[in-house]
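User: I'm writing a short report section on ligand binding and want a predicted complex to refer to. Could you take this sequence and protoporphyrin IX containing FE and write out the structure as tokens? A short remark afterwards would be nice.
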Amino acid sequence: MSTAEDSISHGNQTAKAFTLTSALWFAFATTFGMIAAGYLVAPDFMANIEYIQFGRMRPMHVNAVLFGFVTPGLLAAAFYYLPRLMKTRLYSEKLGVFSAVFWNLTVAAGMVGVSMGYSQGREYAELPWVVDILVVISFSLVIANFLLTIRRRTEPILYVSIWYAAAAVVLTACTYCLGNVIWKPDTGALAGIPDAILLWFYGHNVFGLLLSPMALGVAYYVLPIATRSPLYSHTLSLLGFWSLIVVYTHIGTHHLLQVPVPTWLKTISIVDSVAMVIPVMVFLINIWYTVKGKLGDVHADIGAKFVFTGTIYYFFVNIQGSMMALPDVQRITHYNNWVVAHAHIGVLGFAGVTALGGLYFILPRITGKPLHSTFLADLQYWLVLIGITGFGIVLTIVGLIQGQAWYNGETLYRTLPEIQPYYITRLSLGILIMTGAYIGLYNVIRSLYFNRGATS
Amino acid sequence: MRMTPAVILFGVLALLGSIALVMVYWPYAQQDTTPSEIFRARNAEEAAGRHIYLQNGCVYCHSQAIRPFDWDLGSERIAQAGDYVADEPIQLGSQRTGVDLSQEGGEHPDDWHHAHFINPRYTRPSSVMPPFEWLGTERIRALTRYVQSLGFLQADRRMERQDYWKQESITAYEAGPDANVRWLVEHVPEGWHRVPNPYPTTAAGLQRGQRIYQYFCIGCHGPVGDGMGPAQPWIYPPPLNFTILKGRAISGGILYHQIMNGITGTAMPYFKRDLESQKIWEVGDYVAYYFINQSDANQEPKGIDAAWEP
Ligand code: HEM
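Assistant: Sure. The structure tokens for the complex follow:
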């Protein structure tokens, strides 16, 4: 089936809508990040502007990245591959487009809420209660479409990508309600230490049960197709899937190793953080063996290139994360920019880059025309790659400076002039990533709506 | 294993449910809600201040939990679960772009906080904390009440001390420069009065002293040491004008002690954590040499000359 026919027989409006959503929020989110990074370099530059000051910009940045850019990007790919893998059509494109519009309104409402000062003050669970409800509705709309599509499938066997996509949205709808303490609209929180335990159970599950499985679903779909190879091992897929669900849900407390939470809980989280190598390496072995000897094919498809790069970051973020969970290591790495480096490698390097790969892989297939510009996509690839690798290096250095200094008795105030040059470097690297995001947005809009390229 | 929709959905939900039960519900059900010995409830104004803290994301830069191996601000008290029983949501934080604030109450008097919130660079020249002048006086006051309550009963004790010495320092200041300087130095232990700065004044030392002055002191005492730094309008008694110290027998030792220990009650902070011995002597000599225009550096009694002296 040629891609042109494909795009006609499936309307693909939902995948298109989520593609646009993702590209748009990538641009917004990186802009927010730039503003936040700007404050750390020059706190008096945009002084006393209530709605954009650092303490509000940072949660806007994080939530826009998570729920505006990465998740919709991965959803776009899922809305594309689910019907195809099950030899059917999406249950309802109308519902899908509606869910994408609703999704955008939800994220926008969240941004406005946090910007206006309605944050609930819990990291990764800042969005005010009303928006929490909207988020749950957004997920429910997606879940309904997914499950009803699964019900009308004509292919009896469910491919591994489907497991991940279905599990991710269903589990996240649950942990989102739980983690945001949705039954307590006034504070959206528990009291005391249990609040921290719950928060990080949820917080890590945003990566563990939403971004990671969705990204793995995309990788499992894109890479075998791009290299025209069958998946290396079904057994490894099974092992990877179930171990991810089990292990990831145990590690949230590794954010709390240095505060008074029960020791048994810390022990479990450390052991399981190290055990994270199981789901990660199982996946990587499976996918890397699948593409073994065919890196030329990967390189030839810009989408696959992004996705494959994402798997490499997944490797690094896992090695790094497992090490950070060791108490002796965390004595140096906690509370400082080391963690910020890790978070960016994980969320942007792995999940975000994979989402971009998904977008570029499906774009020609849903429009029936080649990308507006492969050159621009490639340029974006390098801008993001240099930016995020630079972030990883620079922020790790800052983290080590801070961590070592504090551990050896330096005061924080004295380290501020020491880390200033690195904050400036970080800002500059951020410009690369942000530029990449705007180039991507332009390319996506051109590819979707103003593409004069011949239908292939 | 055959992955049907039912296996996937019920499988993952059953796993999530049982794991959440163990990892979240069990610690919740088993939690010890006994408040710790320093705990007390917050009053309405402190609660209002805490709300401002939540709204404005102070948590992204400030942790509220001291670890056993910390040295910096607040490190006299290691966090205990019972300190947090009333915190909904809890504000442990995951970043220390700024200092830990769990024991901030009473570290400084209120006027220091006011100046700091107006613009952190006024009191702390290398700070990267954003200014909060836009909050306006009312909300800055509420926020200050919250910050001054951090540490609960221990904070209250520190605040009593601040308030007592605030009154004393205002009385002294209002009695004129003579009385004020007498008051300032009479609380410096006698021994320090007789200790001159033991090291010689050198160009290099003054250079270093100047750098310390610019990173730590300039916002209050001002570029020329007359006490007219940008923090001045918010601070009372105002930052000391060093030039009035001339001819009042201010030894290097007195300067050292005041810088090291601060002057509780006034906005003058202690610098014993931030600056080590060499830096305190050198910034002291910088102040003496340039602003007081009278330095006792390297005068007798100074003991045996240190090995590095030129
Ligand atoms: C794969 C195995 C992983 C392990 C064992 C792991 C471990 C850790 C640990 C121990 C921390 C806390 C560090 C501290 O606060 O001192 C942490 C923080 C974090 N991790 Fe991971 N991580 C892993 C993968 C990932 C992935 C794949 C992502 C994103 C997709 C991610 C995103 C984050 C973020 C955003 C934080 C920062 C949270 C904060 O703001 O404090 N991690 N991780």
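A remark for your report: The mean pLDDT of chain A is 96. The two ends of chain A are 12 Å apart (CA to CA).
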